[in-house]
Design brief:
431 residues; alpha+beta; Dna Ligase, domain 1; eight-stranded antiparallel β-sheet; 37% helix
Length: 431
C-alpha cells in the first residue's frame, strides 16, 4: 500500500529485498486480532491450525478467516484478491449484505476491490489517505497548528528546493546535521542523514534531475534532533467527525526501522498531556479535511526532554493497532508489555506445534501469567523453503511480552533470544 502511494512520486534512492518483502506480505495475519466472530478476514493462506487453536484457547474471539485461491509470495494480499475470481465473488456476496471493507490502509488497489465488489469503505478514499500520509502534509499541518517540530523547510518546487538547500547549508556550517525525507518513505526508507556539504550538493542534484524527468520534487530538509525515545500514538476520527485519543507507546526502532513497542511509554504527566493535546488537535484538523478512520502519529522526545508531537502521520492502521486485543486480554494483571519482532534463519519449515513446545515455559499458559504470546506466525515460514542454492531462509516471529516491570521483560526477551538461537541451530528437544 505504501508502495502504491509512492508510485510516480519523487523519492530518495532505496534498496529493496524481495525476501524481506515476502515476509512483510505475511503480516496480513495480524488482522486476525482485529475482527470479531461476525467479521471476515482475507489472508494469503489459511492460518496454521495449531496457531489458530492457540489463540482461540485464550478466549480471543477471532473472525472467520478466508484464504485467497492462488496466492503468490511476492504479491500483497490485495493483489492476490484482484486476481482471484472466487474471492471476488465471495466479496460481492458480502457487499450485497452491506459489508464494509476495513483494510490496513487504502490505496488505489484496495479502493478497486471495494468498487468491484460493492463494498463500502470503512475509512477514507485512497486519494485522501495518500495526501494525509505525506510527510509534507504532516509538516505543513504542524506549522499551521503551532505544534513543535524540528526546524526545517519543505520543497515542492525548484524555488523552494533552492531555499531549503540554503537553509541546510547554514545548519551544516554551524556543525549540526540535516535529515532529508521524501514524502512517502516508510520503515527507514526515504530518509537520509546529511552531515557534510558534498552530500547535500549530491542530494540537490538528484532532486533537480528528478524534477527534470517528472516535473515533481517533494522533499523535506530539517535539522537533526538528538532523541531519547521514539513515540507512536493513535487517534480515531469517527464517522461524525469526533476524535478519540486511543493510546501512546514508546516505539522501538533500529536505524529508522520499526521493531516494536513498549507499554507504557515512560512519559512524564506533562509530556503525555502534550502528546494527547496534539493528537486531538491533529484529529480535529483531519476531520475538517474530510478524513475518517484510524490515524497513527509518530513523535519523539529529545535529549532536552522536549516532546516533538508530530514527525509523521500514518493514514492507516499501525503495528500498535493490532496489539489492542492482546493488551485487553493479557495486561490485566501486569503493568508492562513489549511487542517485538525476532528474526529467524531456518533451514526447513517450522510448524507452530514444534515452536510452542520448544518455547515451553516462556509461553503464557493463561491470561494472568507473565510470559510471551505469539501474535503472528505466518511470517515465520513466509518464504517457505530455502531459495535454490541456499541452505536457509529468513523468517520473522512476532511476540507480545507481558510482565510486572521492564526488567523482568528484558530478562524474558533475553531468554527468548537464546531459545530461538538454539532452534536455528537445531538444538531442540527433538534433536
Amino acid at each position: 500500500m505504501e508502495e502504491q502511494w509512492a508510485l510516480g512520486e519523487p523519492g530518495l534512492p532505496t534498496i529493496s529485498s524481495q525476501g524481506a518483502r515476502t515476509v512483510t506480505h505475511r503480516m496480513d495475519e495480524f488482522a486476525l486480532l482485529l475482527g470479531g466472530p461476525t467479521d471476515h478476514v482475507l489472508l494469503k493462506t489459511a492460518p496454521d491450525s495449531n496457531f489458530h487453536a492457540y489463540l482461540v484457547d485464550f478466549g480471543i474471539a477471532l473472525p472467520q478467516a478466508h484464504a485467497v485461491g492462488a496466492q503468490q509470495p511476492g504479491r500483497t494480499v490485495t493483489k492476490d484478491i484482484l486476481e482471484d475470481p472466487g474471492t471476488l465473488a465471495f466479496l460481492r456476496d458480502l457487499g450485497q449484505k452491506g459489508a464494509y471493507l476495513a483494510p490496513h490502509g487504502v490505496s488505489d488497489l484496495e479502493q478497486e476491490v471495494a468498487e468491484r465488489c460493492g463494498l463500502r469503505l470503512a475509512t477514507s478514499p485512497a486519494d485522501l489517505c495518500k495526501r494525509v500520509n505525506s510527510k509534507i502534509f504532516s509538516r505543513r499541518l504542524a506549522d499551521r497548528l503551532g505544534i513543535r517540530q524540528p526546524v526545517g523547510m519543505v520543497s515542492e518546487s525548484p524555488e523552494e528546493l533552492s531555499e531549503a538547500v540554503e537553509f541546510a547549508k547554514g545548519v551544516l556550517n554551524d556543525g549540526r546535521k540535516i535529515v532529508a525525507k521524501d514524502a512517502f518513505g516508510v520503515s527507514g526508507k526515504g530518509v537520509m542523514v546529511v552531515d557534510d556539504q558534498r552530500r547535500l550538493e549530491w542530494l540537490e542534484r538528484t532532486a533537480v534531475r528528478s524534477y527534470s524527468r517528472s516535473g515533481k520534487t517533494g522533499m523535506i530538509l530539517e535539522e537533526w534532533i538528538s532523541k531519547v525515545k521514539d513515540l507512536n500514538y493513535q487517534v480515531l476520527v469517527a464517522k461524525d467527525g469526533s476524535v478519540e485519543f486511543d493510546f501512546v507507546k514508546e516505539a522501538i526502532t533500529e536505524n529508522g526501522v520499526h521493531k516494536g513497542h513498549r507499554i507504557p511509554a515512560g512519559l512524564t504527566s506533562a509530556q503525555e498531556a502534550e502528546v494527547r493535546s496534539a493528537g486531538l488537535a491533529i484529529g480535529k484538523a483531519l476531520a475538517e479535511e474530510g478524513y475518517r478512520g484510524v490515524v497513527g502519529i509518530d513523535a519523539l522526545v529529545g535529549t532536552d526532554e522536549k516532546v516533538y508531537p508530530l514527525t509523521e502521520i500514518n493514514a492507516r492502521y499501525n503495528m500498535s493497532t493490532y496489539q489492542a486485543k492482546l493488551q485487553e486480554a493479557f495486561m490485566q494483571k501486569h503493568s508492562c508489555a513489549e511487542a517485538r519482532q525476532y528474526p529467524l534463519r531456518l533451514n526447513a519449515r517450522l510448524p507452530f506445534a514444534v515452536l510452542r513446545k520448544e518455547l515451553g515455559q516462556l509461553m503464557v499458559s493463561s491470561p494472568g501469567d507473565a510470559g510471551i504470546i505469539i501474535n503472528n506466525f505466518a511470517t515465520v515460514n513466509a518464504v517457505g523453503e530455502p531459495p535454490k542454492g541456499q541452505k536457509h531462509f529468513d523468517g520473522r516471529m512476532y511476540a507480545f511480552l507481558v510482565g510486572q516491570d521492564m526488567e523482568s521483560i528484558a530478562e524474558l526477551d533475553n531468554r527468548l533470544v537464546r531459545k530461538l538461537a538454539a532452534i536455528e541451530k537445531g538444538e531442540t528437544s527433538q534433536a
